[in-house]
């Protein structure tokens, strides 16, 4: 599928459907507020994200894409429905269990990097393991450092690194514990186009060469084109997907969504 037209926005099977799901949502619903002030951010979402794949989530402003990621990552609680990490129902977990799950099985890459300024790049990378009291797998560390081009930057503090280098450190930190899935929230939002392209290439490498699973929220069609699949949301619902995406196909899909659902956009 190279482009979407309005009739195609009902969703259809993708090439990743034959792979096991790393993350699943069933009837996932999120309502903020109550009564007349209630806002339904997600409305019964059913979606699978394949293991060993790079998936982007896109949609118009207010479509629910960030809310979906936060619920799938255990950063927010669902109003109804279930979210699974592998076979684990994370919507049934308490705060302590969710903290342990995020520490051991989920990696995060944020727009703002979130590096600790007093630590070196290497100290920032291994911080999740230190917090968990786990040893550093030096062989895996060397693979990450080599893949991300950080070998000559490990002794530098964040203030001594460019934005692209800081985001590569954040990616290494997200991968160091070999999580089941890495969630990336607008990971190139604070980068120029050249640095952004490098970061996206490294995320794709982490999937194709290191066997990781990445789920990324983005508003940028060019960024989404680095993914294996783009899941489209509109008005809190799955509206379709694009496999083997190109920037042109993603733009066409977003345009079709706007033409269908513009009056309902929040």
On the 0 to 100 scale, the average pLDDT is: 88
Using only C-alpha atoms, the radius of gyration works out to 18 Å
**Number of individual domains:** 1
The number of distinct β-strands equals 10
Largest sheet: 6 strands, mixed
Which sequence of strands runs across the widest sheet? 6-7-8-3-9-10
- The percent range for strand residues is 15-25%
Shape, per Cα inertia axes: globular
Q: What is the distance, rounded to the nearest whole angstrom, between the alpha carbons of the first and last residues?
A: 28 Å
Fraction of residues in H or I helices: 25-40%
Helix and strand succession?
EEEHEEHEHHHEHEHEEH
| CATH C-level | Alpha Beta
Question: How many helical elements?
Answer: 8
The CATH homology group name: P-loop containing nucleotide triphosphate hydrolases
CATH topology: Rossmann fold
What is the SS-derived class? alpha/beta
Describe the protein.
With 266 residues, the chain is α/β, with parallel strands linked by helices. The protein has a single domain, classed as Rossmann fold, CATH 3.40.50. The chain is built from eight helices and ten strands. The strands form two sheets. The chain has a six-stranded mixed sheet with strand order 6-7-8-3-9-10, sandwiched between helices. A hairpin with a 2-residue loop joins strand 4 and strand 5 (88-89). Helix 4 packs antiparallel against helix 5 (163-175). It is globular, with a radius of gyration of 18 Å. The two termini are 28 Å apart.
